[in-house]
Amino acid sequence: MSWSKVKLIFLREVRDQLRDRRTLFMIAVLPILLYPLMGMVFLQVSQFRREHPIRVWLLGAENLPQVPALLEGDAFAEAICPQEESRSIELTVAPKADQSIAKTDASARAQEAIENQEFDAVIYIPPNFAAELDKFHEKLTFTKPTPGEVGASDVPKPEVFANTASDKSRVAYERVDRILSRWRGAVIAKNLEARNIPLEATRPFEVVNIDIAEEGSRRIAIWSKILPFILLVWALTGAFYPAIDLCAGEKERGTLETLLSSPAQRSEIVWGKLLTVMTFSVATSLLNLVSMAGTGSFVMTQMQRMDMGGVIPLDFGPPPILPLLWLLVALLPIAALFSALSLAVAAFARSSKEGQYYLMPLLLVSLPLMLFPLMPATELDLGTAIIPVTGVMLLLRTLMEGQYWEAARYALPVVGVTALCCLLAVRWAIDQFNNESVLFRESERWDIGLWLRHLVRDRGETPTIGEAVMCGVLILMARFFAGFVAPATADFRSFAAVTLILQIALIATPALLMTIMLTSNPRKTLSLFAPRWQMLPLAILLALLLHPVAMWLSVGIHTLYPLSEDAKAQIQALTAPIAEQPLVYVLLLMAVVPAICEELAFRGFILSGLRHTGHRWMAIAGSAAFFGITHSLLQQSLSAFVLGLVIGYLTLRTGSLFPGMLYHLTHNSLAMTAASYWPDKLKSVPSWEYFVAVDDSGLYYNPYFTLLCGAAAALLLYWLHRQPYAASEEERIQTAIDHQTSLTGQRPVWRLW
User: Fold this and answer.
1) For residue 37, what are the contacts with CB-CB under 8 A and spacing of at least 6?
2) Is the peptide bond before 68 cis (omega within 30 degrees of 0)?
3) CA nearest 563: which of 630, 610, 503, 633?
4) By residue range, what is the domain housing residue 692?
5) Which end of the chain is less enclosed by CB atoms within 10 A, N or C?
6) What is the pLDDT of residues 404-433, one digit of tens each?
C-alpha cells in the first residue's frame, strides 16, 4: 500500500468537504454558536423561575385542636409554616356550614374540586378529631399504660387529596405533607412534655456528616461522567455525515466510478476516506467539547450568582485542564472506530437519504454502551474493561479522577479491545469497497405484492441473508416474550412441558416453517447430509476433550461477571425440579431435545443463509451470536457463543448437521452429569482426583489435565481443517478475490475471516 496515494486521496477528500458550506457550518460554526445560544436562552428563561402559589382547601377546620394550633386566622400557623413558605400557599378554609360533612361526601367534593382545577390539594379533618386527640393525650398524662395499651388507632386520621398525574397538584401535596409533618411533630412534643420527657429524648445523638472530598475532586467527579459521554456521541455523529457524503454522496454524483478506476488500490481509497472522516470526527468532537464545557461552566457560574443552588451543585465549576488532556488521548482511537463503522455503513447505502436512515440503528447499538458507564454502581474492572466503548469511557473517568494506578491495571485490556474493534471495522470497510455488488447497488421501490411473489417464485436452494437474520430475530422475540408468560415450574412435569414448548414451538418450528416456505431444497438448507463415518466419533471425542476447557471458561466468565443473588435463586428454582429425577429423563430433556431443535435452527437455517456473505467465519459468528442471545443470562450467553463457534465450524467442515448435533448432545450430557451424577461417583474413586475433583463450589478439572485436553482438541481441529471443504459459491468468489488482491498487493494475504 502506497501512503503517498493515501495522502493524495485524503487531501482531495478534505478539500472537497471544505468546499461544502453545509459541512463547514455543521462542524465549525454550529458548535461555536449552538451552546452559547442555548446558554443565553436558558439564563433568560431562568430569570422567570419562581415558586408558583398552590391552592389548598381545608375542610373540617372546627375539628382541629387549639394546641398545638395548625391555623392562625385563615393561614397556617407561623410556627408550623414559616412566612417565606406561607407566601406560596393560598389557603381557603371552608365555612362552618360545610364543616360537618360525612367522609364520603368530603371525598367526592375534594375529587370534584381538584378535577375542576379549583384547588390543587384538599385537607380533610374528620369529625371528633380534636376530642379523640385530647382523650389520647389525657390517657398518656394521668395513667401509666403498658406499651400494648397505647395506640393512635382511636384517633381519626386526617386525609390529603391530590392528583399525582398533575405536576402542580403533586407539588401541592408535597408542601402540604411537609406542613402536616411539622404539626404532628408539635403534637408529639406536647405529649412528651405532659409526661415530663424532654424532646431531646427522641434525638439521643446527632450524626455529623463530614465530606473529605476537595472542591476540585467533586468538580472532576461531575465532569468525568459528562465529558466522555459528550465526546463519544459527537465522535459518532461527526463521523457519520462526512462518511455518507464520501460514499453514498459520490454514488449519487457519479464520481465514485472515476475514483475506483484510478491507479489507487481499494485499500488505499478506504484509508484515504477513513482519515478524512476521522479528521472531521475529531474536529467536531473537539469544537463541541470546548464550546459545551466553556459555555456550561459560564452558565453554571451565573446561575450560582443568581442563587439557584437548588438546581445545580454549589461546587460545580469549570473542568480542570489536566483531565481534558486524557480526553484528547482517547479521542483518536474512538474516532477511528466510529469512522470505520460509519464508512462501512455508508458504503452499503444506495443514496444519501438511505445512509441517513442507518445513523439511528448505529446510534442505538452504541448508546447503551455509552450509558452503561453512567450508572452509579458501574466501576472499571476486568469485566467492564473488555466491553467495547464502555471500557474506554470508564478508563477516561478513572484517569480524569486521578486514579492512575487503577487505570494502569486495566489500560491494556481497554486498549487491546479498542484496537481489535478498530481493526475489524477497518477490515469490514475494506471488504465493502471490494464488493462491487454493494458499491453499485441501485435504488429500488419496494412493493409488498412483488416481494411476496418473489419469495414464492424465486426460492433459492438455501435462504438469503435477510431471511436468515429474520429467522434469528423471530426466535429471539418469541423467546423474549415467552420468558414473561411462561408459568412457574413447581415440579418436573411442568418444567418439562415449558422446556419442550420453548424448544419445539419457539426455536425449531420457525426454522422448519421458513425452510419449507422460503427454500427449494430443505435438505441442503438444514445440511441434512450423511457425513463420513469418521466425523461422528470425532464430534463426540472433540466434545469430551473440550469439556474441561469449557468448564474453565465458564469459571472465568463467572469471575468476570459474577451472578447476583437473585440470579442464583432463579437458577436454583429452575434446577430444583430436575434434581431428583432419573438421569435418562434429564438427558432426554436437557441434551437430546436442545441438540435437535437448536441445531436445526441455528446451524441449519440461519448458518446456511449467512454463508451467502462469502465469509464463513462471519456466518459462524453470526449464528453463534443468535444462539448465545437466546440464553437468558449473560454468563450463559457468553459460554453458548463460544460453544456455537465450535459447533458451527464443525458443521461447515463436515458438511453435515449431524456431527454438530452429536457434539451438542455430548456437551450438554457432560454438563448435566457433572452437576448431579459425577460428584457421588468421584468420592468413591480417589484416583480420579488427578483429573477431576470436587469441592464445596462444585466440580472442577485439574489445570494440567485441561491443558492436555485442549492441546489434543487443537490437534483434532487442525486435522479437521485439513479435510476437504465444500465451499459455497459466495465463499469461492470471495476466496478468488482475496487471492487476486493479495497477488496484486491490494491487501494483505492474511484475512480475519
Assistant:
1) none
2) yes
3) 633
4) 536-567+581-744
5) N
6) 888 888 999 999 998 898 888 888 888 777
